[in-house]
Amino acid sequence: MKKSYKNAAIVVALLGLSGLFYQFTTIEKVSTETGYHIKNIDFCGERVPVEIVDVKERLDRELVVNMNLHSATTLIIKRANRYFPEIEPILKRNGIPSDFKYLCVIESALTNATSSAGAKGFWQFMPETAREYNLEISSTVDERYDVIKATEAACVYLKRAYAKFGNWTLVAASYNRGMAGVERQLTAQGVTDYYDLYLNEETSRYVFRILALKEIMNNTDKYGYVFSKDELYQPVKTKTVAVNANIDDLQRWALDQGINYKLLKWYNPWLIDTSLIVSINKTYNILIPTEGFKRK
């Protein structure tokens, strides 16, 4: 019996080593392919100067990191199938390049995340900035959690930043550092390009993280992220109910709409209380799912 255990242990160890060997050779193969493709990459049509050594290596770092964050990257790709169709038309309508959807990806992984600093939602607005861009934050509503309204607000910021810098890469960096912060560093260092700036680590990595996710999400098969249509999260059909009066009990109201409170919150995360207070002349559009919520 002891000999059998010993033999079994040897087999397991050999299988483990072979698995590691396969993993390492697979990663090496992907890395080699990646090295070829990063010779030509752009952000919003603005070429990335990968012939500069530090630029190439900083991009490579983010590619290596993100293509090996298997669970996180898998979920991002699945969510993108649902949310990009909502985000892309808003960007287009506002004259914002489609590449900025990847900024949204690195900000929140396409979730209504909350940062340690208090930024919330897909676009990670801080409270004061949200209010500046006409997103309501009250005791019962936080529109930072409304992907449509938050994307519209982000577009206003991005257009203002482009009017200042005339360069989309600097606009992206300013979303992290702030317009004043980027402008201050450009002036102090006497340069005009993001790739020539020496910045704090977060902002220094920021655009490269966007580029890495863009590369991986546009070439999922190459990086080993292969999914059937059914595995991706599909857009869900909803109807809109316009509300211009207070709702004292959203739990009861949800039942009256033929759904439950869980679904109401799931599709309307900007409703942050069990009631809704509506200001004079204000109307809220509440989404009610019309499919995918009933048991078979």
TrEMBL record:
Domain Transglycosylase SLT: residue ranges: 92-191
Domain of life, per lineage: Bacteria
InterPro entries linked: Lysozyme-like_dom_sf, Transglycosylase_SLT_dom_1
SUPFAM superfamilies recorded: Lysozyme-like
Residue ranges crossing the lipid bilayer per the database entry: none
Family: Belongs to the transglycosylase Slt family.
Protein name from the UniProt record: Lytic transglycosylase domain-containing protein
Organism: Paenimyroides aestuarii
